[in-house]
Amino acid sequence: MKFLLKLILSTIAVLLLAEILPGVTVNNYLSAFVVALVIAVLNSIVKPILVVLTLPVTIITLGLFLLVINASIILLADYFIAGFNVSGWLWALIFSILLSIFESILHSFIKKDKK
Length: 115
Hints:
The chain is mainly alpha-helical. Strands 1-2 form a two-stranded antiparallel ribbon. It has helices at residues 2-20, 29-53, 55-60, 65-80, 89-107; strands at residues 24-26, 84-86. 21% of the residues are buried. It has one domain (2-104).
């Protein structure tokens, strides 16, 4: 249930950013939901592999290369989803940074389980 709620909040963040950023477009609500789902899947499967493969570069750049990995995840989502379009690397980078900020703010509203 908590995953579905986080997915809905991520969909809202994607919709807001598509309205704010001129280089990012989402066709409809279903496309935004699919974008949130695909980004979640890519972040859980592809991103750890990329982080391990690029660990030396990430260490040399003091972690800034992770921004490039995040932008490439967004561009992969753009490639897979027909109703989602990102104009280039710069817009993917800006979108990934703002999406992380919006998601952390929105996810902070979810009550944490105390065990």
